[in-house]
Write a structure and sequence with these properties.
Number of strands: 10
Function: Catalyzes the phosphorylation of the position 2 hydroxy group of 4-diphosphocytidyl-2C-methyl-D-erythritol.
Shape: globular
Bound molecules: 4-diphosphocytidyl-2-C-methyl-D-erythritol 2-phosphate, adenosine-5'-diphosphate
Family: Belongs to the GHMP kinase family. IspE subfamily.
Mean pLDDT: 95
CATH topology: Ribosomal Protein S5, domain 2
Enzyme class: transferase
EC number: 2.7.1.148
Largest sheet: 10 strands, mixed
Order of helices and strands: EEEHEHHHEEEHHHHEEHEHH
Structural class: alpha+beta
Helix content: 25-40%
GO biological process, one term: isopentenyl diphosphate biosynthetic process, methylerythritol 4-phosphate pathway
Length: 285
């Protein structure tokens, strides 16, 4: 097959605790990455002239800085085969800087897709390690399973979460992950918890108090969504979310949102739509 069209699903952080800080400044976390059946779409066309090109509707990011191109070039360098190339086309649906992992998921689909198209035969573990050098959130999308995560998000253990629907709201602001992690008021010493505590529902997002204070629009979105179901920040924001038992209820809530928030409804999935599209779980895991 010479062309692949692949999903790049979003994630939510169902909770987020910051348990420490490494010598390199990166923070150690505990989180659950919940994959969603909603995301960007990446098309990859094989080329045999060694060129890598990208067409993208992402505004504000140069192609050379786009994680898709950066991931493709990194993999190409490792292959040491000057003929392997690709024309990539990225259709963005996920808001940038939303804490829902759009750029990371695009990069993961690039790595997994090119591995397939270029017939490199690299394992998901190897692809995840390559991805981790580009961003802490890439490994979970490479492995493609809703997971309990530790370390900086690279130590992953798949878990099964309840089958539910999420309303995700994006206030009209952009949160820089680096800004939040550098902030002096960030809580950095949460005690580690066990999975049972998460399953009992006794957890939150440690970035949320600071982000709410710095971004009043996010605070407003959380207050609005709380009317319907417990609401939370994902990652370092800017998106907030709440879960619902069925699609109709979630859609009804989403449609009532104040127009200052964009939003979408998505189903939580335990296996990534990317892996379902490629039938990868049996082939590579
Ligand atoms: C904290 C999370 C939770 O999902 O936030 P979101 O980005 O999704 O909101 C992520 O792990 C983020 O992952 P990602 O967005 O890939 O972060 P990176 O590009 O690797 O890092 C951006 C910057 O954030 C800081 N950073 C990031 C992750 C981490 N565990 N500790 C950090 O201190 C570092 O200053 C780094 O330079
Ligand atoms: N394909 C891409 N999609 C989104 N952002 C990208 C992409 N490539 C590079 N970026 C950069 O990565 C940053 C984080 O983007 P994103 O993954 O959407 O946010 P988050 O990490 O908050 O979920 C953006 O601010 C942007 O500068």
């Amino acid at each position: 097959m010479l062309t692949l069209t692949l999903p790049c699903p979003a994630k939510l952080n169902l909770f987020l605790r910051i348990t420490g800080r490494r010598d390199d400044g990166y923070h150690e976390l505990q989180t659950v990455f919940q994959l969603l059946d909603y995301g960007d779409t990446l098309t990859i066309e094989y080329r045999d002239d060694g060129k890598i090109t990208l067409a993208s509707d992402l505004v504000g990011v140069n192609n050379e800085d786009n994680l898709v191109i950066r991931a493709a070039r990194k993999l190409q360098t490792l292959t040491q085969n000057p003929n392997l190339g690709a024309s990539l086309n990225l259709e963005k649906r996920l808001p940038m800087g939303g804490g829902i992992g759009g750029g990371s998921s695009d990069a993961a689909s690039t790595l997994v897709g090119l591995n397939h198209l270029w017939q490199l035969g690299l394992s998901l573990d190897t692809l995840a390690k390559i991805g981790l050098e580009l961003g802490a959130d890439i490994p979970v999308f490479v492995h493609g399973k809703t997971s309990w995560a530790e370390g900086i998000g690279e130590k992953l253990a798949p878990i099964q979460t309840e089958n539910c629907w999420y309303v995700v709201l994006k206030p009209d602001c952009h949160v820089s992950t680096a800004e939040i992690f550098c902030h002096e008021q960030l809580t950095r010493h949460d005690s580690p918890i066990k999975i049972a505590t998460f399953l009992e529902g006794g957890t939150g997002n440690s970035c949320e108090p600071l982000v709410r204070k710095l971004y009043p629009d996010i605070d407003k979105a959380l207050i609005w969504l709380e009317q319907f179901s417990p609401a939370r920040l994902t990652g370092t924001g800017a998106c907030v979310f709440a879960s619902f038992k069925d699609q109709v209820t979630a859609q009804t809530v989403c449609e009532q949102r104040p127009r200052e928030f964009s939003g979408f409804v998505a189903r939580g999935v335990n296996t990534s739509p990317l892996h379902q599209a490629l039938g990868l779980l049996t082939e590579l895991s």
